[in-house]
Amino acid sequence: MMKKLFLSIVLILSSSAFAKPSVVVSILPEQTFVQKIAKDMVDITVMVAPGSNPHSYEPKPSQMVAISKADIYFSIGVEFENVWLERFRSQNKKLRFVDISANITKMKMTEHHHEGAEEEHHHHGELDPHTWTSPNNVAIMAENIFHTLKEIDPNNSAKYKANLDQFLQEIQKTDMKIREILKNLKPDTKFMVFHPSWGYFAKDYGLEEVAIEVNGKHPKPKEIMMIVDEAKEEKVKLIFAQPEFSDKSAKVIAKEAGIDVEKISPLDADWSDNLIKMATLIAK
Ligand code: ZN
Questions:
Q1: Ligand 1 centre and the CA of 200: distance in Å?
Q2: Chain segment 34-50, per-residue pLDDT in tens
Q3: How far is the CA of 209 from the centre of ligand 1 (A)?
Q4: Ligand 1: distance of its center to the CA of 10 in Å?
Q5: Is 120 strand, coil or helix?
Q6: For the whole model, what pTM was predicted?
Q7: Dihedral sign of CA atoms 75, 81, 86, 91 in order
Q8: Which tens digit of pLDDT belongs to each residue from 151-206?
Q9: Distance between Cα 159 and ligand 1 center (Å)
C-alpha cells in the first residue's frame, strides 16, 4: 500500500511540478532554433534523424511514445507533416500544434525548366517548404517559438526573451557575414543543386538556384545532356548534392562538365555555420 502511494506521488511530481515542457520538432534546424531560445528549459525530440529525408519520413515507435507525452509540436511545413500531424493529434489530444513558418511568405518552388523537359510541377506542389535557408525567415520563426514558450511556461518568460534577443542578433550577424562573402558576385549568379532546397537563400542574396532534379526525380539522359550544357554555359564551378538524396546524377553531370560535387545539407543542425559555408562555396 505504502509502496503504491509512494509510486503515485513520484509519478505526479515527475509529470507536473518538476517537468520541463516537452517539445517535438520535425527537423534538426528547428531543434537548434528552439535550443537557442529555451536552452535547457525544455526537452526536445527531433523527428527526422540526420541523413533521413523529410519528404518521405515515417516516425519510429519510440517517437510515437514521445509524441504521446509531449506538450508542443513545432511543425515547419515539411512534406511528411502532411500525412503525420493528424495521426499525432489522435495520439495525444492535449498536444498543441504550432507551425513556426506560419507568418512567413512562402514562394513557389524554384521551377527551372531545362529546355525540352516536361512542364510539370515539383513534387512539393505549389509552395517551397525549405523556408529556413533564409535568415530573415528564421528571425520570424524565432519570434513564433518565443511566443509559444512564453505562453506555456510564463515563469521563465524573461529568460526566453533574453535568449530570443541574443539569437536575433546572431541571425543578423549570419546575414551580414553572408552578404560580405557574396558581395563581389554578379547579380543573379547561378548555382547548381540536385534537390531545390536553397530557393529562399537564393532569393535573399540575389542568386539563382538551378535544380538538377526534375519533378522530384533524377533527370533522364536527354535532360542530363541539357543540364551539362547549361553548367558549362553558366560556368558553374560546383554541383551541390545533399546526403539525404542519391548523388548519382549530380556525379554524372559534374564529370561531363569537368567540375566537382560538394555535399551540403540544408538540414544541418549547425544552421548559421552551414549557411556561411554555402555562401563561401558559391563565392569560390
Ligand atoms: Zn526538399
A1: 12
A2: 999 999 999 999 999 88
A3: 13
A4: 44
A5: coil
A6: 0.89
A7: negative
A8: 999 999 999 999 999 999 999 999 999 999 999 999 999 999 999 999 999 999 99
A9: 34
